[in-house]
What we know:
Layout: H1 2-13, H2 21-28, H3 34-50, H4 52-55, H5 59-70, H6 76-84, H7 93-112, E1 122-125, E2 137-143, E3 150-159, E4 162-170, E5 173-174, H8 175-211
Antiparallel strand pairs: 1-2, 2-3, 3-4, 4-5
Helix pairs in contact: 1-7, 6-7, 6-8, 7-8
Amino acid sequence: xxxxxxxxxxxxxxxxxxxxxxxxxxxxxxxxxxxxxxxxxxxxxxxxxxxxxxxxxxxxxxxxxxxxxxxxxxxxxxxxxxxxxxxxxxxxxxxxxxxxxxxxxxxxxxxxxxxxxxxxxxxxxxxxxxxxxxxxxxxxxxxxxxxxxxxxxxxxxxxxxxxxxxxxxxxxxxxxxxxxxxxxxxxxxxxxxxxxxxxxxxxxxxxxxxxx
Length: 212
């Protein structure tokens, strides 16, 4: 279950990663982001299946994937700020950058290895009557011929004419909110410096495990 959830969350964050810039630009201005999200997810799933390097979580390939394709379609500063919480306001500019870098590296390591679980998953829109909003929640589900459907929700935010992902809910767990809960204890005991160390240490530990 953890592997499936990790895959879905990672794929959800990178939903727009495999589309061309032209396709992204055309879709990003749509008033309704629902169809855009589903198209992005399915394009991503198909392209991951075609790329053995991504399926095997090749570090160089994943690094390029994250930096060049995922970062432009998520508001990562907001995601990090939300995960850190009120102490973000106390962080210096340098610390804020370290927090974003550390969080990005942690998420990349946590989720990259789960691409091998792509299988035959397909994204479908779950019709809803959600009110129009600048931060809508788009409900989808991942379906497979061999596994039970998994609910995936996207919290979106409109920035000018562009939609960006600011959180992902997989099976009832909002990813950013979940990390906020995890970070709270570290921040309470050691503040921003302790959180930066904790993220970097966790990433290093996961890197070592991946090499074994």
